[in-house]
Every structure is written in C-alpha cells, then in structure tokens.
Amino acid sequence: MPLLVIMSEPVYISEIFSSIQGEGYLAGRRQIFIRLADCNLDCSYCDTDHARRDTSRIEISPGSATFNYVAQPLALPYVLGVVRQWCQLLPGVHHSISVTGGEPLLYADSLGEWFPQLRPMLPIHLETNGTMHIALGQVIQHVDYVSMDMKLPSTSGCTEHLWGLHRDFLRLSAGHNASVKIVIGNDSGIAEINQVCDIIEEVDPATPLFLQPLSAAGGGIGISVAHMLRLQEAASARLADVRVIPQMHRMLGAL
Fold first, then answer.
1. Are 136 and 173 in contact (CB under 8 A)?
2. How confident is the model at residue 27, as a pLDDT?
3. What's the total number of domains in the chain?
4. Global pTM value
C-alpha cells in the first residue's frame, strides 16, 4: 500500500487539454485538464496511461485535439502561461481546472505551491483515488472541489484495506464540495454499496454519491441495467443524493 508523497520532485505532466468533464459532480462542465503522471494504485479498469514520459503533450489550442510535445518535467511558469492564455482566448468558457492523474497527490508538495497561483484564474477541481489523506492535508486549503474515488474490490481489483483510508480522506475533504464516485459492475454487491454508505453516513450523509457503470472493452457498459438499478436502490435507501452517470466523455468521443 504505497502512501509516501513524492517530496520536492519535479512535476511530470502527461497532458494538458480542454474538454468536457465526463464524470461525477461537475459532469458536463468545460474544464482545463492537467493530467499528472504516476499513481500509487493499479486498478484493473484504469484506462489512463499514467507512466512518466520524456515529453508532455499540450493541446495547441483549447478543444483542438492537436498537440505539441514539450520536454519534461514542466515548470510552473509554463503551466501558468498555458492556463492564462486559454482563459484569455475563451473567457468564461472554462468552469475550473481539473487536476487529475494518475494520482495527483503524489505531487502534493509541489501542488501546494502551484494551486495558489492557478486558483486566481479558475477554481481547482481535484480528482483523486482518495487514499492519501496526509498528502491532501498539504493542499486542501487551495481546493474548491474534491472528486474522490472509492475503490470497490469487485471492479478495481484493490483489496479491502482501502476502506479506512477512504474514510480518513473523506473526513478531510468535508467542506470542499466533496463527492464520491464508485465504479460498479456485474460483480459488485450490496455489501460493497453498504460499506461505501457507512463511510459517507459517518462523515457527511449529504455527500453526493455517483455510481459509474464499468466501461466495457469495445464500448457499452459492464453491468446489466437490472443490477445497476438494484445497486442504486440500495444506496438511495441510505443516502439523499445518489446518481448514475456513465463516462460521458467516452460516449461523446471527447478527450
């Protein structure tokens, strides 16, 4: 269970691009995505290449889906320049900056310096696997939205030991527009749903819970509608705000 924060390391960014948020609380919002390399987990359903590369791909203009490749690691002034230029080019278009990964909190030491300079331009939306609460403590005061995953063993391949980490993480996220996302599949059970609900009820029962159907290889979803509805019923019997949202960006063919 690797939980050490990478301290004082340069920031390796896989890509910077502009697109529609396809998951969770801000689904449908246009964002500037800053995707960081590296992750402390290895989820079986992960569809993101988070390995470090010698270059980072940066969208040439927001929404163009054409890229320049820039030598790694990237310095803060470069990233600030990209975000500032896009905000000036398309004023009012982007809702927020989505800092995602990989697991961005592996770079918490650096992000503690980056976020205060990025945040005056756009709110900060942190997408995280919700296991690194100590690292979250280094940046939480600069974060406007926390979108945390809880990893169901049935879909992620991760083991039960993450539940306690998820609980500690959600506690620290309270008051920062925190929401929880779980990926559900045909093997997901009511017991897992109840475990998620236990944690949310203990911390803040008003926290939105998003059930994201497992994306199947070749398109479609990896869960029957009947089973998806059973899981939704179980969660909704305990929590006030439960929503089912598939990966919208995949359906749209967006980045």
1. yes
2. 95
3. 1
4. 0.93
